[in-house]
Specification:
Order of helices and strands: HHHHHHHHHH
Helix content: over 70%
Number of strands: 0
Strand content: under 5%
Distance between the termini: 21 Å
Shape: globular
Radius of gyration: 17 Å
Number of domains: 1
Length: 215
């Protein structure tokens, strides 16, 4: 489980540049980056939505694995493939996970209207709920992490995996918004993307080799 925790945090940290472009830009547009507390509540809601998704996905795949004896082995193969695709995604081969984001867009069509029903007053509760709703924005990075959450073995572990993943994205989202743009330049730099992308590809290939020996 310890290596999965490392993988979860690495995925979040590696994808921070992508998060800055999507959720970070959204937080800036909504004015949250002008206040540390508003930014904190927004990101807390976003990370909690990841944990909820991890709980749901892990519960679903835990039930499926009980039906097929090699269910977890096949799921690990799928997770390894997704890790490789995520590495390619970070290397700006956007088509690697574009198909998955398009699939997630169907769910987002039902969630997005809820963002308009939140009260106009930007209280802590409003900002927290906004973060929870926008946390379901279609994202290949999050979907890749969810495949690993499904491997965790039970719903609570799946939620914990996604919580660690979310915490991996938190430093960039919070520190960049509050203090400076230097971290954003590092995380979005070509060097960082290549290092992170190749690490994830290597981890994905290692996972595939381990799963192949279990068949």
């Amino acid at each position: 489980m310890s290596i999965d925790i490392i993988a979860a945090f690495l995925m979040g940290l590696a994808g921070s540049g992508h998060c800055l472009a999507m959720c970070g830009g959204l937080a800036a547009a909504m004015g949250y980056q002008r206040s540390p507390m508003r930014l904190f509540w927004y990101n807390l809601g976003r990370i909690l939505s990841y944990a909820i998704a991890g709980f749901i996905v892990a519960a679903a795949f835990f039930s499926i694995s009980k039906v097929h004896v090699n269910g977890f082995v096949y799921l690990r193969i799928f997770a390894g493939v997704m890790m490789v695709l995520l590495g390619l995604y970070l290397l700006r081969w956007n088509r690697a996970l574009l198909w998955l984001e398009k699939a997630g867009a169907y769910l987002w069509r039902y969630i997005q209207p809820l963002t308009r029903k939140l009260p106009a007053e930007k209280t802590s509760t409003y900002i927290f709920l906004a973060g929870m709703l926008w946390g379901w924005l279609p994202c290949g990075l999050v979907y890749s992490a969810l495949t690993w959450a499904a491997l965790s073995g039970d719903p609570l572990s799946g939620a914990g995996f996604m919580l660690i993943f979310g915490l991996g994205t938190f430093p960039a989202m919070f520190l960049t918004g509050v203090f400076s743009q230097k971290l954003a330049h590092i995380l979005q730099s070509t060097s960082f993307r290549w290092i992170a992308g190749l690490l994830l590809i290597g981890y994905g290939i290692a996972t595939l080799l381990i799963a192949a020996k279990q068949l």
